[in-house]
Amino acid sequence: MSIESNKEIVIRFNKEFLQNGNTEVLTELVDEHFVNHTIPSNMPNNVSGLIQFVGILHKGFPDLSIQIEEQIAENDMVATRKTITATHLGEIMGRQPTGKKVTIKVMDMVRLKNGKYIDHWGINDMMQVIQSL
Predict the structure, then answer these.
(1) Average pLDDT over residues 58-69
(2) CA separation (Å) from 122 to 1, 10, 95, 96?
(3) Which ranges of 17-72 would DSSP assign to H, the alpha helix?
(4) What span is annotated as the signal peptide, if there is one (predicted)?
(5) 87: which strand partners?
């Protein structure tokens, strides 16, 4: 796959799965041997963990929107800096809805194999945002 194709796959994952909650697209975008190296320790580090995480995120922030700020790619790796904006309209991690607007900053790296996610590493300020609710 080309570098540009890999970037498009990452954008599609962010928009269709993370933003829109479409779990069907995972069969096209995520390898069966996928490993999420930075998912919270109480969640599986595979595709089922992705689905759990997005379910929690959408429950608390059903109107979430992802803005891709920047992408850098080389070989089979894509680094993305993105911003998630949302409104706290549902319960998340014990926090009842506040109606507050939130902004979550994220940086992640994805390794792709044959056009699919195989590894993910990331950092974000989600826990600080949730604690501020």
Answers:
(1) 98
(2) 22, 13, 23, 26
(3) 26-29, 47-60
(4) none
(5) 101
CA atoms within 13 A on the CB side of 24: 2
Cα separation, 30 vs 76, whole angstroms = 14
Residue 129 makes CB contacts below 8 A (sequence gap 6+) with: 102, 103, 104
Rounded to 10 degrees, the C-alpha dihedral 84/87/92/95 comes to 130
Report the distance separating Cα 102 and Cα 87, nearest Å. 6
Measure the CA–CA gap between 107 and 122, rounded to whole angstroms: 6
Block residue for tokens 């909650």: 21
CA–CA gap between residue 37 and residue 8 (Å, rounded) = 22
Alpha carbon distance 31, 34 (integer Å): 5
- pLDDT tens digits along 68-94: 999 999 999 999 999 999 999 999 999
